[in-house]
Design goal:
single chain, 295 residues, mainly alpha, MetI-like fold, two-stranded antiparallel ribbon, 2 strands, globular
Length: 295
Amino acid sequence: MKNRLGKWLLSWPPLLYLVLFFLIPTAIMFVAAFRFPGDYGGLAPMYYYEEGKLIWDLTLENFTRLVEEPIYFELFAKSAWYAALTTLICLVMAYPLSWLIARSAKKYRDLLLLLVILPFWSNFLIRIYAWMIILGPQSAFTRAVNWVWTGMGGEPVQLLFTPFAVIVGMVYVHLPFMVLPLYANLEKHDLSLLSAAQDLGANAWQRFWRITWPLSLPGVFAGSALVFIPALGMFAIPDILGGTDSIMIGNLIKQQILDTRDWPFGAVLSIMLTAGVLAIAMLGALIARKGVKRG
């Protein structure tokens, strides 16, 4: 009886949280996708009475609009490309950093981890606005880039309000989410395996590719999921650092909900984004499972 009570007390709070803040809002969004927009925005009544009969005022026009206009799928594909590029850059930058932290002396390890999570101590928007200053046309960084580029015969370039600025901002924000799971994985590796491989004649590349990389795949997959999924729906960074060519699916959803107040179509876009994230997560889990079994 006590064991059941303990399990109930442990399982019900997170389950209740998921129901209240995920399941119910998702259900509301799903129902809103089949409704008409109101005359002044928002949602029109879902039903009305005519001659004493209950008439449901629902439609599939929002889904039809999504399918008939390819620009929305193109925008989703561009958002997926931005998120994938961000994930790849974070992986390339985080892997050696995580390895360095994992193999550093214990007295320095906590300090290095503190430096990784230090940006979380400041406000998200403040950090993004700081990049506006760094990438601004009059900044020292932009002047240095243009000095080198024009010296090579190129024309001066603008860094702010470009896709480059969006990728830089997203990599900066999400890099710690790649470092931490990679460090947690690499820190547990048995170094005697590398020593044994070296004794058998394996060079540095063979030791990494045959031992370190397969053992680190769980950390790679975990970090990739933590970076890719939030990056796919990001809207604040493209709003602040990007231009009109850098709009992502999250910006379009925000525009439909807050600006044009077309809540039904915003709900359809949100459903598409949620379904896409779930599909990609399931595919990633399947690939990860096969990779772990093969390893």
